[in-house]
Amino acid sequence: MNSFYAASSENFFQDVKQGRFQQLMIENASRQNINVGEAEQRSYKASGQKIKELLKAGRIKDVYLVFELMVPYSGCRIDCMIFGCDSEDGKNVMHIELKQWSEDGIFPASSAGNFVEAYTGGKIQTAAHPSQQVKGYHGYLKAFVEAVSTDSLNLQGCAYCFNYIRKDDDGVLFNPKFDVLQEEFRVRP
User: Which domain holds residue 26?
Assistant: First the structure.
């Protein structure tokens, strides 16, 4: 499967530290004849930095990272996937939906289902709750990618909303109506 970036954690840390990550993402998108807008290009820099900080804080190393993985037959891209082994040599894959949403840019949706109104693409629009988006990718990976559909591989997914500050009232993303969805596919602020 194609992606915009794939590297060991060691190389990823260096690419982010030396400011190459964003440019490599843009160049690889261009090689695949995919034109990404300026806002998405800027998001690569922020996302790379936040994933680096997350891995460093968790003392996670010796993993392989893939960004903007093309989902076959769908035209969608998974923001980040991390491949690695745990302390008992169990094989693990984590897919992460990265959101730069902040709490003041998300509102309850007027439509039913797992949706919110969010400032995205330069305007307020209806969008899938991040956990719903992760659930969709998860189901797709399990159904259509043989390598991750086996029981010998632990596939997990979450959303990482790194600009979101969780308040006492939990805000829109943590509304109780999303509790069942978040039991399996968590949003991490």
Answer: 3-184
